[in-house]
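Q: How would the structure tokens look for this protein?
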Amino acid sequence: MALGVLSLNVQAKTEDKTTIDVGVLAIRGNLSAEQRWQPTMHWLNQQIEDVQFVLHPLDLEGMTNAVKQQTMDFILTNPGQAVRLGRQYALAWIATLTSRKPDSSNYAIGSALVVLANSPYQTFQDVSGLPLAAVSEQAFGGYLTLRYQVAQQGLNPNDFFSDVRYLGFPIDANLYQLRDHNVDAAVVPACLLENMIKEGLLEDGKYRVLNQQHSDDFSCQVSTPLYPNWSFAKTERGSSALAKKISRALLTMPADSTAAIASGASGWTSPESLLSIDKLYQALDLHPLQQAWWKEALRWLRNHQEWVWGGFILFIVLNAYHFWLEYRFSRSKKELEQALHRLKDKSEQLEHSQRVAIVGELGSSLAHEINQPLAAIRNYSEGGLLRLAKKRPHEDITLVFEKIQSQVERADAIVRRLRMLIKKRSVEKQLCNIEQLLDDTMELMNFRLQKQDVMLSRRLEGEVVSVEVDVVGFQQVIVNVVNNAIDACVEHRSRQSLTLNYQAEIEIHTEYRQGTMCIHVHDNGTGLVFDNENPTDAFVSSKSDGLGLGLAICRDVVEMHRGDIQIQSITPRGCEVIITLPY
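A: Here is the predicted structure in token form.
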């Protein structure tokens, strides 16, 4: 009966006390958090009897919401979240946890990059880009401290963590994923590996920590420098008077007390500076007081309005100048196109004039060529009339008419070739038998060749292939080249008047090779008289009455066919013109 009354009295006293809610970051789950921090709540309940401290395990998001919505009086968290929350909300730091090292240092938070002991990885570079396990992008000891260390070593954190898997709380899952070969490495808070091995959750000797930071005073393996330990803080909802009592109670906690041992510490000390963590967040562009770039830009614009207006005016001026240049360029382009069009017209007129001049030079030849069929027609007509007068059989008359018809066709062919040569035409390419074109052209020049006593020979090499050319333009090239060869032979004869055995000769050698047709025009005349000038350039001529446009026009016509024309002297005398056309 007495025990029952005592129990009721204790329960009544507890119910009369004010409840103080303390939120704690449960990195290894709620049960682990209660096992680690509930003894600290018992210690506070013993030291401060007029209130009742109640522990609330929370994850990262839950802790943030608790501080934001003021559902907790006090919080107990790691330094990374302490900075993120303390720079956004009104938190008052009461005490910092100390480690169990001999000097009771309050630096005990860091990251360990753990790999399997039998893996080939030895450095950070070896695991860069490989599948990694981590707690969260916001986890301080489980991710951010290692990301900062990677950047400090000159590596690109984005490349290093290109295949990271965030598993959240409890953090034990990261090492389980490594154990099961689902990832190649795991990023976990310092001492987690040692604690799980001590608890029998992992097998000893199966794991290694990369980039170990050696410290005689810290028993756990760690891959990064150490940062301040966990901190106890008051929220806006908490009482300042109670915070003073809590601070006094925590600072007097003995190192051998159940609360200190359970928390893995030697007790508590005054709040540690979090400057090193502030610098880490700033280096990673994650500090809560850092504003977005566009907000910084707006503030700079407000503070430097004179530069803004100057830049705006410069922008307007540059754009106006750009549009003015565009207008000038467009107008110049149109003028250039018009000039090119006029130049093309003039070029066509020049070609036509040159062909007319060629016809003038061939006038005597043309007269002779046409007079021959006309004289034959007259003779055949007179013979036909005589046969009619003598009443000869109609078979004799038919034969005469057939011969007259043949001469008419001959005269018609001569006139047709002449019209073709002097025709002002647009460039029209068509498949052409070059050998037939050469035959027609030599027919036009036959009289002059005979008159100047120049012997013409032809030679063919390869199988004849039709080539796509501008017939009129190409015939003009051939006439020009052969005319020049005749002139060279006549000039040489006049210079060698005492040489009785000189025979002027011109040879046209046509050669058909794979994809290429070449026309070689050889003569045994004077050869080239130019030392430093190209005879195909405009206004370069060796003739006293020449304008130097013939070969220039020839060059343009050949180049229009994607061909090439070359002129060179040959030994012992004479000249060779090589016209090359692709087909």
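Residues 305-361 form the longest helix (57 residues).

Residues 1-12, 537-541, 544-548 have pLDDT under 50 and may be disordered.

Upvote if useful.
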